[in-house]
Write a structure and sequence with these properties.
Elements lengths: L2 H17 L5 H14 L5 H4 L6 H19 L1 H13 L3 H16 L4 H19 L7 H11 L8 H12 L11 H22 L6 H4 L8 E6 L11 H4 L7 E7 L2 E4 L12 E6 L1 H10 L3 E2 L1 E4 L2 E4 L6 E7 L15 H5 L2 E7 L2 E3 L13 E6 L1 H10 L2 E3 L13 H16 L5 H14 L5 H7 L2 H19 L2 H13 L4 H18 L2 H19 L4 H12 L9 H10 L3 H26 L3
Antiparallel strand pairs: 1-4, 1-5, 2-3, 2-4, 6-7, 8-11, 8-12, 9-10, 9-11
Length: 591
């Protein structure tokens, strides 16, 4: 088999593994590096070049810098000041949330920013009486849009810049993306403020229905067994009213139904979340045809015997060490005394065979335990506790120092004082030396799935150039694009990048398409920058699904969103940003 055919087979296999991942991304990445070296498509030195690439180093450094800002409590300071600004209606709340989100996301990785904004948003939504579903998705979208404004706002911009420099180009300045990025932010922000109130649902997440900590009301899980006298009866006559209990949620066939109507009829096998005093819940279980539910205590199923334990939602963070592990192997019961009631993923609630499920980023675990135990898992950093959002509103100590370090890195890079990888590593070291971040959190911030995927796709791009595959694809595109004009070409490149990002990843899409874009520009005799900008922005703007971008996944559970909410609200924004990019990139970066 020729080197070109071998590479095509390898490239197809990698794309299939990324779209339908039977193994972890890290495994696919390492296998790709090994395959490139063993098949001789590239030299061993080139196969491992991605590990030492300035792009990989810079992305790693920026992840640590982002974690330093996150852990220092910078968002807590902003949140404390948002409380007064947020009062006065939905539009005012949105503006109060979106402005700081945009400012920070322009310079810091937006995933931890949104993770921190979730409890802040829920706390402010509760105070103002506004449904979280009206504001959480706009926060995610604005963070994505703002990340395109600077070179360090998203890893995609860093990658495109680094690859351009490696191919002999001048690269991009710190604020060179700002012209289009700010336009994106203005257009997208206006869309969010004007269209959001018309299409976003008024839907409350489970966390908003749970009683606040410190009250004498609790939530527990009961099931309706076969043969129960409650089968076929309405909730109003079966479980509510006189017994001072309220049905928070019914789960039927793994589909959660929040706040079911009084006329909702029960069926055998329904799982019911009941709120009430300990006495009323115990009395209901004793008198009615329901049984206490069960929970997973590591690898054992146990009957729920206490109703005074707190129930909370806990979101799996993108850098959590729990990712890819089975629920039964987390050791939450052994380490914290925490039991798992269910796992929520993409609108479904999984309760049966729970222990064998593998954890994904953005999953929501429904857990129960003592308040101190719930605080402990929050402090451990692997889970974002949605319940108890009020504790986020506290004044930090290290925030000014962490923000000063980040500002110094950005300013020095903007003035060209040193290469960005050097400044990034220096800034990361400063975060550790000053105590803004401890080594454990810094290590956790180095997301192996992101870094290893970059390290694997960089030599893939090199291989495409060495065997001539990139040149062949670029030549074909150049022939088809000759005479069509730069606007059509930019629009086509953006659209292909955007669609590929939806099924692979933003970084992989950018790395694989940059060599082709450079070849197309060379074949047509034009400046490659407009095509590279189209790749950078096309890979970053993903709004139509909850799985296209990590921040969209994070807000799904706390916001109570369904898949169709993303399509309805996000797909028009995808089209709007595509049209904006097509119209303005050739004007801002003439070919």
């Amino acid at each position: 088999m020729s080197p070109t055919a071998t590479l095509v087979v390898l490239l197809a296999g990698v794309l299939v593994l990324l779209v339908w991942p039977p193994v972890r991304i890290e495994v696919t990445a390492l296998a790709t590096i090994a395959a490139l070296a063993l098949t001789g498509i590239v030299s061993p030195a080139d196969a491992f070049s991605g590990l030492s690439s300035p792009a990989t180093v810079t992305v790693a450094a920026m992840l640590v810098l982002s974690a330093g800002v996150e852990r220092s409590g910078a968002m807590d300071t902003l949140a404390a000041r948002l409380v007064r600004l947020a009062e006065g209606g939905e539009t005012r709340l949105l503006i109060a949330l979106l402005v700081p989100t945009a400012v920070l996301s322009a310079f810091v990785n937006n995933t931890p920013i949104v993770a921190l904004m979730i409890p802040v948003t829920l706390a402010l939504a509760r105070r103002t009486g506004i449904a979280p579903s009206r504001v959480l998705l706009p926060v995610s979208y604005v963070s994505i849009l703002a990340g395109t404004c600077t070179l360090v706002g998203t890893s995609t911009n860093i990658l495109v810049d680094s690859l351009h420099r490696e191919h002999g180009g001048p690269g991009f300045g710190m604020f060179e993306f700002a012209a289009l990025g700010v336009l994106y932010l203005v257009v997208g922000g206006a869309y969010v403020l004007l269209v959001g109130p018309r299409v976003l649902p008024r839907r409350t997440g489970l966390s908003e229905l749970l009683p606040a900590a410190g009250t004498d009301r609790f939530v527990t899980v009961v099931t309706v067994p076969e043969g129960s006298g409650l089968v076929g009866k309405r909730l109003e006559s079966a479980l509510g009213g006189a017994d001072e209990t309220k049905v928070v949620e019914v789960v039927r066939d793994e589909v959660p139904i929040l706040g079911p109507a009084p006329e909702f009829e029960l069926r055998a096998g329904d799982v019911v979340l009941l709120e009430g005093s300990a006495r009323s819940i115990h009395g209901l279980i004793e008198r009615k045809g329901v049984e206490p539910g069960t929970a997973l205590a590591d690898d054992r199923r146990v009957r729920i015997s206490r109703v005074d334990l707190r129930i909370a939602e806990a979101v799996v963070t993108p850098t959590s060490s729990f990712r890819h592990r089975r629920v039964r192997d987390l050791g939450l019961s052994r380490r914290f005394g925490i039991q798992v009631l269910a796992l929520r993923r993409l609108g479904r609630q999984h309760q049966y065979d729970l222990g064998s499920l593998r954890i994904h980023s953005g999953d929501v675990l429904l857990v129960q335990g003592e308040p101190a135990s719930l605080r402990a898992i929050q402090e451990d950093g692997d889970l974002l506790l949605v319940e108890g959002a009020e504790r986020t509103l506290s004044k930090p100590r290290k925030a000014p120092l962490a923000l000063a370090i980040l500002a110094a890195v950005v300013a020095l890079a903007a003035f060209g004082a040193a290469p960005l990888p050097v400044l990034g590593v220096a800034g990361a070291a400063a975060m550790l030396v000053t105590g803004c971040l401890d080594p454990r959190d810094a290590t956790r911030a180095l997301d192996p799935s992101v870094l290893l995927l970059i390290a694997a796709t960089i030599p893939l791009g090199t291989a495409m150039e060495e065997v001539g595959l990139a040149a062949r694809i670029a030549g074909t595109i150049a022939e088809l694009g000759d005479g069509l004009g730069i606007f059509v070409l930019v629009g086509a490149v953006y659209l292909v990048t955007s669609l590929l990002t939806e099924v692979v990843s933003n970084n992989a899409s950018a790395v694989l398409l940059v060599p082709i874009a450079l070849g197309v520009a060379e074949g047509l005799g034009i400046d490659p920058k407009p095509l590279l900008v189209a790749i950078a922005f096309g890979a970053s703007a993903s709004f139509a699904t909850p799985i296209g971008y990590q921040t969209n996944t994070l807000v799904m559970g706390p916001g109570g969103y369904l898949f169709r909410d993303y399509v309805r609200f996000g797909a028009p924004l995808n089209v709007l940003t595509w049209l904006t990019a097509t119209a303005f990139i050739p004007l801002l970066w003439p070919a």
